[in-house]
Amino acid sequence: MSRLERRYRLLLRAYPGDYRADYGDELLDVLLTRAEADRVLPPAREAAALVVGGVRTRITEAAQGHAWVDGTHLAVTALSLVQVAVLIPYAGSIPLWVAIAGVAFLCVLRGWIRPALALSVLTAAKVTAITLGVQIFDPTLLPIFPDPPWQNTDALYMNGGPYAPATSSILLILGLMALAIRGEPLRHRSWWWLAAVPLVAGADPAWHDIVAGDPGAMLRVGLETALLCGAAYAGHLTGDARWALAAGVYALPCCAILVENLLYISRQEVAHGMLIVLLALIAAAVPYRARRRILL
Amino acid sequence: MSRGSAVSEQTYFVLAALLDGPLHGHAILKRVADLSQDRIILAVGTLYGALDRLAANGVIVVEKEEIVNGRKRRYFRITDDGRGLVEAEARRMQQAAAVVTRRTLGATFT
Prior knowledge:
The complex is a heterodimer of chains A (296) and B (110). By secondary structure, chain A is an all-alpha fold.
């Protein structure tokens, strides 16, 4: 195998595995036939086209099945991820609840909705109790302080009120209930979702880390923005509303944070909230526009 | 191609390349380059993305598959819908071109 072929094979990994198995060799044959004899690096234009083509194919393949079912699954995956990631810095004080939220997130990822629903209800009840300063299920010393390396983070739910976390929990539970009632088998979400957990861990539920300009918070805002832009791009490409639904559900707790903290809110928080709402609105609008028949 | 058009210029030339008969991917690339006088050189990833979308829309179909040097090769054929689409686009462009050429050529010969 030549170096050029090895590099093209690497680029072809942008395509989904089953597509690669069916057509990867065909594409490779054309790529190698077109290449000059002494070439060892793929031309930048071909490389970019393969990456874009692979991403587009992945998105097109993802737009299968009922849009609202898959969109709801995507939304509850994001909400469940945030729920566990917010609790992780406090694992030393509330290990049981971090474990329950973690298992709930894994169940959501694997599409096991009934256990995910039961565990998410328990976590939501505990989180709501913590925000209200009430004891439930087990005695918990309040406020809950973070473990290293998050010792500079505020106590759990110290900033903001109880309504925004409750909105997030209610949406998560309602989404899981809708999926459980529907009873349709769900796809397994990618393990890549786990890579987002360390990026979101330590996020302040009331966005005070954004006001402080914390580098971790900036990284999280970057990830959030990239995913919402990705949702808009996927809707534009397929004319399918599943990503818009997920983006909209994700934006609702953000609106709750803005409303709940209206009196104390800073410019950074307003800008962050408006960015999320704007991107969610764009994601909602593009599928309708994309339904005009554009073939290439 | 105008924004109101159903096909882009690249799609138009891919479909035009298939009007004379089924072709495989590499042959389509060469034919598109010939027809457009080397103005349109498609990248392989772009071509196959377009072929997938055209096939999903029923504008082209896979006519046959053969194995060459141990690798699969698909031959694509334009459907009646695809032929109608590219012909309608050609008529639309001809009409649009006539709006200008009627005036400029008319001015030349008067």
